[in-house]
Design goal:
Shape: rod-shaped
Radius of gyration: 50 Å
Mean pLDDT: 85
Structural class: alpha+beta
Number of strands: 10
Oligomer: single chain
Largest sheet: 5 strands, antiparallel
Order of helices and strands: HHHHHHHEEHHHEEEHEEHHHHEEEH
Number of helices: 16
Length: 459
């Protein structure tokens, strides 16, 4: 073998050794000196370039290009080592592919420069080329260890892939994996089941074309804004076309993966069908609105009381009836706010109150008349009812209805008084009629006597 060929073969071997050492570091095989990896001057190829190659072959234009590419390789290697040291191991390893492209340029330039040099026989040349066999031994050792580690890494990746596929099968979400380099999209089986498709295209059109026209621009622009500007997380809510022609409302989120240069290469995510949940929320909102409308417009006071006797809800009629705000009435047990004394003025113990016993003793109180008290201390008659509320068969709170029957009591009193007045009037009238009747009978008797006397005289 001539000296020139041997010199360039050794340069290629040094370059291969550099790549092996970088891989060894990124895959944790060993922790070599970083200097020859990150510095273009300390590595074996750099020493070859600056030791004699530029001097001996610098007259060839491509040699200058070779030096620039070599510097670029070490710049890339420095970034990968930094990523690795920052704990971004996967990003660093993914970056090896981009660096390999630059490294291939170096090998191509080595071949090009070598081809332009007139080869001479080593026996007739006074060469300063130093051939270090130990570097070849290191290369063989590192390649062997790297091969073992790569197999282990491949096995781990396979396990991770299997785990990912198992999760994708187990989840009810539609999981997607977008290869941004190949512009290919993978969907799990849940996508087909969720939206009713037997088959689905592999490109991003499988997603774009099914977004509702009114949502499409916003959603597509949003995800590309994240991808194009180096973002990592994206999410949106939109309508997605199902196979039956209807639209499902989905919540979609994705996570972008970048290489060591910050270029997005992949995005993974999942879609959750919100349709049933939104329908349930809509129904719940309607029921809540309906309940609020009923309670807000009810003329009766409505209370909710927890197991400790504290008020947890009071409608506007309750505020108006008792004069308390909700914040005020919840400060003490409800009994001590509105039901603290009996009609005779004596204190009313809470444990004797039928409304407070309804929950622990699990019974209903119906049409119970009592006396309640307002915030200003005045009392008024009420008709009330109480019933426990259950959760999973356990009583947890009490609903209380209170109706102010002041006007009813006043009306009853007026009716009673009217009946009493009428009864008195009827009694007096009966007495008057009886008196008049007696007087009339007396007059009739007197008249009969006069008639008899008159008849007797005529005879």
């Amino acid at each position: 073998m001539d000296t020139i060929k041997l010199d360039f073969e050794q340069a290629k071997a040094k370059h291969l050794l550099f790549k092996s050492r970088l891989r060894a570091l990124l895959f944790g095989i060993e922790t070599p000196d970083e200097g020859p990896i990150v510095s273009q001057y300390e590595c074996a190829v750099g020493k070859w370039i600056y030791g004699h190659a530029l001097k001996d072959y610098g007259h060839i234009p491509e040699m200058q290009d070779l030096e620039k590419v070599h510097a670029e390789i070490h710049g890339s290697a420095k970034k990968l080592v930094s990523l690795y040291k920052e704990g971004k191991v996967d990003d660093a390893r993914l970056g090896l592919k981009e660096m390999e492209k630059i490294a291939d340029k170096l090998v191509g330039l080595l071949n090009l420069v070598e081809g332009k040099i007139e080869h001479v026989d080593s026996s007739s040349s006074d060469s300063n080329i130093d051939i270090d066999i130990s570097e070849f031994n290191d290369l063989l050792r590192l390649n062997h260890e790297l091969d073992i580690r790569l197999r282990e890494h491949a096995a781990n990746l396979n396990r991770i892939q299997q785990r990912f596929e198992m999760i994708a099968k187990a989840t009810q979400d539609a999981v997607w994996d977008w290869d941004l380099v190949k512009n290919d999209v993978w969907w799990n089986e849940s996508f087909k089941e969720m939206f009713g498709y037997a088959k689905v295209e592999s490109g991003p059109e499988s997603w774009y074309n099914r977004i509702h026209p009114d949502d499409r621009d916003r959603v597509v622009n949003g995800i590309h804004a994240v991808i194009d500007h180096g973002g990592q997380k994206w999410h949106d809510e939109y309508r997605f076309l199902k196979a039956d022609g209807s639209y499902a409302t989905v919540y979609d989120r994705g996570y972008a993966i970048h290489n060591e240069e910050g270029k997005p290469i992949r995005m993974v995510g999942s879609m959750t069908d919100l349709t049933k949940r939104l329908e349930a929320e809509k129904e719940l909102a309607y029921q809540s609105m309906l309940t609020k409308t009923i309670t807000d417009n009810a003329t009766m006071a409505l209370f909710m009381m927890n197991a400790d006797g504290y008020c947890t809800f009071m409608n506007p009629a309750g505020e108006k009836m008792f004069g308390y705000t909700f914040e005020e009435i919840r400060q003490k047990p409800l009994h001590y706010m509105i039901h603290h004394h009996r009609p005779d003025g004596s204190e009313y113990p809470l444990e004797e109150c039928p409304l407070d016993r309804a929950l622990p003793q699990n019974f209903d109180v119906r049409a119970h008349e009592d006396l309640f008290f307002r915030k200003d201390g005045t009392s008024f008659p009420v008709l009330c009812a109480a019933a426990p509320i259950f959760e999973n068969g356990v009583p947890v709170s009490t609903v209380i209805e209170v109706r102010d029957i002041t006007e009813e009591k006043e009306s009853q009193e007026k009716i009673k008084q009217a009946y009493e007045d009428l009864e008195v009037k009827v009694t007096f009238r009966n007495l008057e009629l009886e008196r008049v009747n007696k007087e009339n009978l007396a007059k009739i008797e007197e008249l009969e006597k006069k008639i008899e006397l008159l008849i007797g005289k005529n005879i």
